[in-house]
From TrEMBL:
Keywords assigned by UniProt, alphabetized: 4Fe-4S, Iron, Iron-sulfur, Metal-binding
Organism: Roseovarius ramblicola
Name of the protein: 4Fe-4S dicluster domain-containing protein
Domain 4Fe-4S ferredoxin-type: residue ranges: 12-42, 79-110, 112-141
Any Pfam family: Fer4_11
């Protein structure tokens, strides 16, 4: 079995804002594209244009309709649609690592990223069974388990512009709902964002200590009822002036 490092120098991970995610799936497409076109082991598809397509994805977006709790200010809150992106959470106490019989799954001590050495993976599926988040994917073509790598081939690539040295899903998100950084540094941008917005762990009762955090949706703003036509219906002037004023006075004499 693989052992976990006693501590990691950094805790690189994602912060996902559920308030601003619009469910466009751009992160899913960019993840699939980057890993398939640039990574050593592409993410395969089976019968992609047939009646029963399937394939390997490292990032997925689920959508849920939720009913906010009633408050004194909002006794009858409207239901909200929440888009929930999900991928590997790079847990501090990662059960997928400790259950691996060949040592293929491991957690890096330098940055806390959980990876799979695909040359050692035998495709037994124990890591997928142990992961409470369903973040492991069996690649049917390769016969090995695959997972989010936080784009290690991007974030440390000095040949890329600095703004591109983030995971592909973060770089492509049009709503700015995905953030990347060191969650082990309390002064980092992502750590401050988690502190300010009350960032949460996914399923904390599992005891896996996920590094990735989620920012909860904010309550929807409410406005007093406004008659949008009122400004158009109000008189511009009490007495007509100019040509229209002259015309009005002339017609009155007729």
């Amino acid at each position: 079995m693989t052992t976990l490092p006693e501590s990691t120098t950094r805790k690189m991970g994602l912060v996902i804002d559920l308030d601003t995610c619009v469910g466009c799936h751009a992160c899913v497409v960019s993840c699939k594209g980057w890993n398939t076109e640039n990574y050593g082991a592409p993410l395969s598809d089976q019968d992609p244009y047939g009646a029963d397509p399937s394939g390997t994805f490292l990032n997925r977006v689920h959508s849920y309709e939720v009913q906010p709790l009633a408050t004194s200010a909002m006794p009858h809150p409207a239901a909200q649609l929440v888009h929930f992106p999900k991928s590997c959470l790079h847990c501090e106490d990662a059960p997928c690592v400790t259950v691996c019989p060949t040592g293929a799954s491991y957690k890096r001590a330098e940055d806390g990223i959980v990876l799979v050495n695909e040359t050692d993976c035998i495709g037994c599926g124990l890591c997928a069974w142990a992961c409470p988040y369903g973040a492991r994917e069996m690649d049917q073509a390769e016969g090995v388990m695959k997972k989010c790598t936080l784009c290690v081939d991007r974030i440390y690539n000095d040949n890329l512009p600095e703004e591109d040295r983030v995971p592909a899903c973060v770089r492509t998100c049009p709503a700015g709902a995905r953030h990347f950084g060191d969650l082990g540094d309390p002064d980092s941008d992502v750590s401050r964002l988690v502190a300010e917005r009350g960032g949460m762990d996914l399923m904390p009762e599992q005891g896996t200590k996920p590094v990735n955090k989620y920012l909860p949706p904010r309550p929807r703003d409410t406005l007093d009822e406004v008659d949008v036509l009122a400004p158009l219906l109000a008189p511009v002037a009490e007495e007509p002036k100019g040509f229209l004023g002259w015309l009005d006075r002339t017609l009155e004499r007729l």
